[in-house]
UniProtKB/TrEMBL annotation:
Enzyme Commission designation: 3.2.1.143
GO biological process, one term: carbohydrate metabolic process
Record key words, sorted: Hydrolase
Family per record: Belongs to the poly(ADP-ribose) glycohydrolase family.
This protein's name: poly(ADP-ribose) glycohydrolase
């Protein structure tokens, strides 16, 4: 069984905890991003030596400072610095306590699997991704996984679309209880039987399918799911250029972002189902 390497499992965690705690006293975006850059320099180490650029040259944190100090309204900035940031720090620091007692396993290719994650753990994973505390991944070191860090996303904060997405993520934490309750289920399903070409050439009828063009998920029966196409690498460009419809979905339901941390790429004969996720607009009503 392969376990996801979490920030709290690394020897740098005590330093990360110290930096995170310092964020609660920040008064402006400059102070926030200076500390976050220190966290990034500590944590963002890649197994690929060609990918270990000088961390101080990463422009994402400059754009984040601009977003906090110049794009946010005075009311938004005050709420972020005095309330939301503190909530996110507390959730990030809770990682060691919130993680599954038997470890956090990967969802591996071609293996049916079900993962039931408690919401405190999900909130902690999201907060740690925002603060970029996870070790760096790239296509050489982890070809079937995504990098689970917001550092590159911040680089695009000059775009209004990214500014809106970040505000949606912050709204999720604003509405999240300090002791979030409930669970989210991720189910990886693999088609067993004929190969994909066999399915394409088959003349057998598919199971009945009802598509409803109107209404919302909250009005639907419990067994109804929202179907959405996705890229092989879950999330696609969601934490980079973030231009796809898939990226929009992941920020509408920020808890979906957690799948980037542990779900290997999907094959043509695989799908990922989620149950119990909270939309950012209401961190108390779950969806599928």
């Amino acid at each position: 069984m392969a376990h996801v390497l979490l920030p709290c499992d690394l020897p740098t965690w005590s330093d990360v905890q110290r930096h995170l705690a310092q964020l609660k006293t920040c008064k402006n975006g400059e102070q926030v991003t200076q500390i976050m850059l220190k966290i990034y320099e500590t944590c963002c180490i890649s197994l690929d030596p060609d990918d270990n650029q000088p961390k101080s040259e990463h422009s994402g944190f400059q754009e984040l400072r601009f977003f906090i100090d110049d794009i946010m309204t005075e009311q938004e900035r005050s709420k972020f610095l005095t309330e939301t940031l503190s909530t996110m720090v507390s959730q990030a620091l809770n990682l060691r306590i919130a993680k599954p007692p038997n470890g956090f396993l990967y969802s591996l290719k071609k293996e049916d699997s079900t993962f039931v994650l408690e919401r405190p753990f999900i909130a902690s994973l999201l907060a740690n991704a925002f603060f970029s505390t996870f070790p760096k991944r790239n296509s050489k070191t982890h070809p079937t996984l995504q990098d689970f860090s917001f550092a590159d996303f911040f680089t695009y904060l000059t775009k209004r679309s990214h500014q809106k997405k970040l505000k949606v993520l912050l709204r999720y934490f604003e509405k999240l209880d300090m002791q979030p309750k409930g669970m989210v289920t991720f189910v990886r399903k693999v088609v067993h039987g004929p190969s994909l070409p066999g399915w394409l050439c088959s003349d057998r009828p598919l199971v009945p399918l009802i598509v409803r063009p109107e209404g919302t998920l909250h009005e639907a029966e419990p067994h109804v799911f929202r179907a959405f196409p996705c890229t092989s690498l879950i999330g696609g460009d969601v934490l980079k250029t973030s231009t796809s419809q898939e990226a929009k979905l992941f920020f509408t339901f920020p808890e979906l972002l957690v799948s980037l941390s542990f779900v290997e790429s999907l094959g043509d004969d695989e799908s990922l189902l989620t149950e119990g996720i909270y939309p950012a607009t209401s961190a108390r009503k779950s969806s599928r």
